[in-house]
Amino acid sequence: MNATASSLILPPDYFQQPDPVFLARDLLGKLLVTTFDGRRTVGRISETEAYKAPEDRACHAYGNRRTARTETMFAAGGVAYVYLCYGIHELFNVVTGPADSAHAVLIRAVEPVAGIEWMLQRRAKEKLTPQLTAGPGVMTVALGITRAYDGQPLTEAKADAVWIQEATEAVPDQQIGVSSRIGVDSAGSCAARPWRFFLRDNPYVSRKR
DNA sequence: ATAATGATTCGCT
DNA sequence: GCGAATCATTATG
Description:
alpha+beta; 209 residues; DNA-binding
């Protein structure tokens, strides 16, 4: 890539900060870039959720449970955690925190910024609507992210990679909405935690259930 | 080896 | 608003 990309790309230190809740909020407005198949697509992060082991029952690594799948989350922050949900959808997470802490931030939605024609093509759509990228399962399709990318670094700007760049402009606090996480009702008292963050008044946010 | 279950989406009513 | 689709992962026998 070019010098601009490498100066804006977020370094491992950023992702290795200890609190996934802080990072989930801080990642709003930043740019998620993919360069698969020679196609560059860019989305502005508009909705996130924090998952924090060991105490968070909604986290796959609840109780620091290490399995073949969750092992990716125990890596040091700055890599991707991509897994299949409901047998159909691939969900993209950013692994955060130091090594051996299984924290992650689920990217639930982005606002298309560049490469929109590739996103439309990947989703087999003609027209740009919020449904193109508003939702964790559809966002990965639009950006071309698959499980093949599980465990890969998010800190290198190059071909066939994913990385995150600094926001072009700061997001003011008043523009950030907070709620409980979606789809984690079975997580007992953890279900009520206000760990979902989104850009207010942005159409590219999944609907609250 | 087998069975239950989900960090969802889409189409139909 | 409701329910089906669909399968990797996990726990259990």
